[in-house]
């Protein structure tokens, strides 16, 4: 398993030391739910001209979903509840630390 890859606070702290406030952290969940507003926030943060809504829509439609199960994998069923709980318990303190560090509660991930 590669659990350490999901402990984002370790990376974010290092990146902030290098880039300071010149860095924006975007969650994949936010981008997946509403890609257009997130992309506009990114362009605004970078202070670069925004592409047209049509161009951005074409881009969004042309890109594949990241962090999604493949079609062949989707036939294997969902994650076991016990596995989900184990992962949530493992990541919770790191996500709490990330949310506090970024002062952004979106990274708390309200587990259900």
pLDDT averaged residue by residue: 87
Give the helix level as a range of percent: 55-70%
Structural class: mainly alpha
The tally of beta strands, per DSSP, is 0
Give the overall form.
Answer: flat
Distance between the termini: 23 Å
Unreliably modeled segments: none
Counting DSSP H or I runs of 4 or more residues, the number of helices is 6
Sheet-strand content, in percent, reads under 5%
Task: Tell me about this structure.
The chain has 112 residues and is mainly α. Helix content is 59%, strand content 0%. The protein has six helices and no strands. The radius of gyration is 17 Å and the shape is flat. The two termini are 23 Å apart.
Quick take:
With 112 residues, this protein is an all-alpha fold. It contains six helices and no strands.
């Amino acid at each position: 398993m590669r659990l350490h890859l999901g402990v984002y606070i370790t990376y974010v702290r290092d990146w902030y030391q290098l880039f300071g406030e010149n860095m924006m952290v975007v969650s994949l969940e936010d981008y997946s739910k509403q890609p257009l507003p997130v992309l506009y926030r990114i362009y605004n943060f970078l202070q670069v001209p925004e592409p047209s809504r049509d161009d951005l829509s074409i881009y969004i439609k042309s890109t594949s979903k990241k962090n999604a199960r493949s079609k062949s994998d989707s036939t294997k069923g969902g994650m076991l509840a016990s596995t989900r709980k184990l992962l949530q318990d493992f990541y919770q303190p790191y996500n709490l630390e990330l949310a506090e560090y970024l002062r952004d509660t979106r990274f708390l991930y309200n587990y259900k």
